[in-house]
């Protein structure tokens, strides 16, 4: 068997042994880093393949705007190394715990408040080294911004939740930290907030994040927080422009940083205090989508990404989930049971299925064949992502 | 620009004619008479794309006008096991739309409607035949534009841009096609309609949109694209900086990025290029400079002023021998005119030129330029260097005389050596032109056997019969083996450290 590019790293050899043994016995392996997102996606009890032993930043040259690191590298080490050079991961991946790893962040594919303007995590992945289900170490993409040699396989990994291959290393594009930031806050109804955010986004205003928190039960006023980030002059000139439309208060920089971090890490009250039989639902919606009201209304709802990502807590039962999925589907989006309460049946499906979307049968077949190509023995068939 | 010396002789003529009649008969009920071409005088314009060195006559050319027709055509070809080569505006530079002698060319040129423009959501839904620039023109009155701007944007189509993941001068700051497309509607080889991505920020399942973009028309035929539009900057200004040696210029590029600045455009031209274009455009370039950098800033007037000042300081510290800043829009366009006209200027210097497309990390720019200088001597051919310095994407233009077969082979070898150097310097054999047929051999340099196998796995997942634009981009094992033998000189394989087969 060919092992792709030769690599004598003992840790990689160990991964290969584990994968080949699993292939032989046809027992899936569940890839895990720090386990900080173990609750995300469909759960399973398969044997863990722990990535943490393969750790370390392999290459980081700030002038190249690229960092290459092993999957098991703590995410905080990556952000700290970047911060030293005044650079950031612009998609702001949530850590959801101290032990979060670089590989886990990529496999989860989640992005924080900055996603609306900076782009998705997948947009920043330049290259990856993986191990497929046959134990082959393979490299795709690279370390340069532009690269169209072969299919862009490294960008298939974000959001695949370890169901396609084991990520060994990845190269990710980074960006300079914006020269200036300012966070503004005001009170206004949801519909008005959504209109303003979309209007501002179409203007040369350095809007880098937004969050509206309130209730959907009526046309009640909620709290809109927006972040401006960019050149000093751009941020400075945008503030009076925004205040000419609606009066805002500028937050103290420390308070602002704490707010955006808590939002990213889901530490605000809208995300916490999940009842045992409740689920935190996530809706991904097109930009045009106005306020949505569920039949039973929600007391707390958070809208991020100018309304394209919405969060609320509701009962976990299948009837509620089906209603939420249908609501999202009607508006051109999809829904997931993002985080479940402790008394919810763990075997419950977490995502909108492809079969619930239009033009899906063909895509389901494509996905199945893709998985079989990378993982013929089903080593990674944990169904965390259906 | 490249000689017509690679026309492949048609295989069994009688068999081809019989197959052609069968195909034409099968497609006639689907298309109006004028939308189905098979006579040589009608199909000859389709024998190549922008890479004229590689030509082949197709069995027939279909020009559908609706998505339903595209689907029906594909169903017919699938049933008859006839390969299909999707084609946009035909501006591709790697032979990605070169026909197959026993296949159909499926032109999407007639699907050119802008279906919807939504200023509120900053999106446009367009058909694949819509020209890149036409999108920006259609939304200009809203203060919006479509950011990816390949040099061919006046002619190239958005469907082709999706297939090649096209970029351009502004992609350093605004991203490639991948970063600016939300959703692609397409049709698989068996005629099934599929949608990749959505108007929402993500979609259920694996992110197939990411792999469809840049797939060189080998996975699905694009029938509709939803693009993101961005706010048009209020102002743009450009700095033109000269350097008296290549290393200083290369270091200046790295210094700008290291200073935390992402310019709207960061382009470089070497002395040979500035001399060639100055005669052509009279932009006032410094003809003594070894390299010239063009650094653009865009945004609000305040932002631009701040950024231009910061970039000027960085360029001065990097040892620029001269700096000029555009004072108005006409001067900005004048500064850019040379960069934009580098290709036609090269065409004035030699009978033909061969445009390469490799990418390297920025820090290796000077190294590669020095190597290219040595290669000029080795191959006895001149080379102009223009490139997107901000993202390390090089476009060496090798000058040669196509009437001389030996010289064309030298130019080809020169180009191959540049690409191999790009891989050795941690870069890639193609930044934005695609692999197509042109670089299929050099894929064997960049990738090993396992990667090649995985690419075929992806291809088969979308197109199990491998009928959609086959034999492009992803080499077969035998091709790599043959290429390996071909490139062995003095018993040594280039880059022996790379595992191949």
TrEMBL record, chain A:
PANTHER family: D-LACTATE DEHYDROGENASE (PTHR11748), GLYCOLATE OXIDASE SUBUNIT GLCE (PTHR11748:SF103)
The keyword Flavoprotein belongs to this UniProt entry's keyword annotation: yes
Family matches, as InterPro entries: FAD-bd_PCMH, FAD-bd_PCMH-like_sf, FAD-bd_PCMH_sub2, FAD-linked_Oxase-like_C, Oxid_FAD_bind_N
NCBIfam families: PRK11282.1
Domain of life: Bacteria
GO molecular function: catalytic activity; FAD binding
Upper classification of the organism: Bacteria, Pseudomonadati, Pseudomonadota, Betaproteobacteria, Burkholderiales
Domain FAD-binding PCMH-type: 1-177
Record's protein name: Glycolate oxidase subunit GlcE
Keywords: FAD, Flavoprotein
